[in-house]
Specification:
The chain is mainly α. It has a domain of 79 residues. 54% of the residues lie in helices and 0% in strands. The radius of gyration is 17 Å and the shape is elongated. It starts with a helix and ends in a 10-residue tail after the last helix.
Amino acid sequence: MGRDAIKKFKKIPEKENLMDRMDTTELAANQFRMTQTRDKLAHERIKDQRIAIKTHESVGKEVREAISRIGGTPPEHLSPAEHIKLVEKRVKNASPKLELEEKDAKGLIGHSEEE
């Protein structure tokens, strides 16, 4: 699926940037896909644009399949995150906290010892 198809599938308005609606899981999956594609293109010395596009698509498919194999949700099937501008506004207006809440950390804080 391309960017526009993903935005339509997730019901993200055309004017919004897709990356502004990605949570940490989706951003990480996309970053992994991009770095692996870049490294593969360099390693295999791919210069032809058509082959580079096919390589990019192939790596993306492999990443999505790996995510599915380990029980995760492929990035294109994750719900859109809160828009980054709203997150920035909420964080700016929030009282300082010593600990992040799960909704803000999106899994980055791990589990507490009390759980």
